[in-house]
Amino acid sequence: MAAESTNNDSQQEIDLRDPLVAASLALLWPGLGHIYQGRKVKAAIFMVCILGTFIFGWLIGGQRVVYASWRDDDKRWHYFCQVWTGLPAWPAMIQASEEGGPLGNDFMRQPNISDDLSAWQLKYNSYFELGTVFTMVAGLLNLLVIFDAAGGPMGSTPANGKKGKVQIERPKKPPDEDDPERPGVENEGNT
Amino acid sequence: MVELILFAVVNRIWFALPLVVSVSLVYSATRHEQSKPIFYHAFRTAIWILGFMVVAYVILSLLDYYFA
Questions:
Q1: Who is most buried in A29, A37, A179, B25, counting CB within 10 A?
Q2: What is the pTM assigned to this prediction?
């Protein structure tokens, strides 16, 4: 099933297939929903940018910046942004304890409030905050991607009577300078 | 655990660059479908963001100079 087909010169039609499945796949892994729809270029852009941002932030934060916690002295609200990245961030939910979980006793675990939290902040300094920001931005960007997978690009409208398809204005091409019919262009044969 | 010692000598403002590139590309890709408009719009968005950051820096520097 083609991802794109054109019916006329000004409109471009995009086949979203099943938008709910596409959105779910995009939530699971950045770009996966677009691969399902055959929109490979955009899938590659989303995958590289969002995963690259998330992994970079996770690494510069010493692999400590993604964890789930809602305790009195440590309300990790940042995780509500990071979680939208999908599978890369979800292990923190099952590792949500100071002793870790089934994925190891150190991977994405909660910090011990009296010891770890201040130690991590001291050791990684501003990179802890930087890493947190990068991973949060990655999650929020994937929110945009989920909407794109579900409803097409911003400004697209449902294609007339076609379920699962939207249409978007095709980008206008600049006028051809060599076109003799273009107003203002002299035809050499007539001079 | 990866020790990114190299980043200790990099001014932290440079970390904004990959973030700006990533945000610009993803935002533009959610507005267009073909690659040329995506990259063109991403370039313009990145210039806008960086320009806004420069203006904010100038304003904050002036405030710091006159009122600090």
A1: A37
A2: 0.82
Average pLDDT over residues B30-37: 92
Verify whether the Cβ–Cβ distance B33 to A4 is below 8 Å: yes
Residues of B in contact with A63 (CB under 8 A): 1-2
Q: Please give the torsion angle defined by the CA atoms of residues A130, A131, A135 and A141, in that order, rounded to the nearest 10 degrees.
A: 30
Top pLDDT among A177 and B22 is at B22
The three-point CA angle B61-B63-B68 to 5° equals 100
Q: Is the ipTM of this complex over 0.90?
A: no
**Can you tell me the distance from the alpha carbon of A46 to that of A29, in angstroms, rounded to the nearest whole number?**
10
